[in-house]
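Example record

The entry below shows one chain as it appears in the dataset: sequence first, then structure tokens.
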Amino acid sequence: MVAQLETLGIKSTVSPSHAIKGLVKVFTSSYRSFFTSVMAQALRIAGQGTPVLIVQFLKGGIRQGQDNPIVLGQNLHWIRCNLPRCIDTPHLDDAETEALHSLWQYTLSVVNEGKYSLVVLDELSLAINFGLIPEAEVLEFLLNRPQSVDIIFTGAEMPKSILDLADEITEIRRPNSVIRNS
């Protein structure tokens, strides 16, 4: 969980003794799933006054895009790719490829501006695995982002390189449907 810190008053002469480093967290599963706990965490943190961005790279269907984010409260912006459908294949037409790349470039830009303290990158792992967003660009982004920004990855088939950089990894599994006694 991302902790909320008490901010110092404007006229305070006290400064923190160390910089607070943002975390990289991964929530992964062997199947595509909606990560309810991550979304609940994002909503809670935004409700406490922290700017949050949720980016759903492979979800479409509502032709939303970065120019028309869903704004929940004052602090949570939720963006889906500007596509007429959800992406479930690496085969995109030119307009879909452009929409996905545009969303990725927008995400890089707003994170590097320090506009958000928490950024949820939903299904970016599949976009990498489909060859739609280069893994090297994602790793460079992680290493060069403002250090105070927390990043949460969600999705199936998370690349090992991202797992290696993560501070925390949570694997979501389906419970066994039958419990057997020995």
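Notes for this example: The helical segments are 36-47, 94-112, 124-129, 135-144, 160-165. Residues 46 and 75 are 5 Å apart (CA to CA).
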